[in-house]
Amino acid sequence: MYTEKVMDHFQNPRNVGEIENASGTGTVGNAKCGDIMRIYLDIDENQVIRDVKFKTFGCGAAVATSSMATEMVKGKTVQEAMEVTNKAVMEALDGLPPVKVHCSLLAEEAIHAALWDYAEKNGITIEGLEKPKSDISEHDEDEEY
Ligand code: FES
Fold this sequence. Notes:
The protein is 38% helix and 16% strand. The protein is α+β, with helices and mostly antiparallel strands. A hairpin with a 6-residue loop joins strand 1 (24-29) and strand 2 (36-43).
């Protein structure tokens, strides 16, 4: 049912963890299953994503897609990161079973929410980025100002 790449990223997920004083964080929930994903971005002064980490209460497909998505945005500019769509991530994983496609949305949405957070904090606009609908982070939760 799962491709080798999905199994690999599920069993050895890359970039699990958190980043202290992240440039942007995004937390989103999946309305279908109630699973939660949080992404942390460390972005340098040239708007390049220096580091990225994720944490999730999600299923194996959510873990695998987030692992792949974080690998794909690392080293990219914030604008280039917009091209890492859930479709691109699924292709990089050689596909997901159709019932698991909604899981891959968590990664994209969480990255967008983290980019939005970064853009807001820095007063910049990222072309094509919309305010995340499903950002459920409480902004006083664990962020230091
Ligand atoms: Fe919830 Fe996959 S079943 S993210």
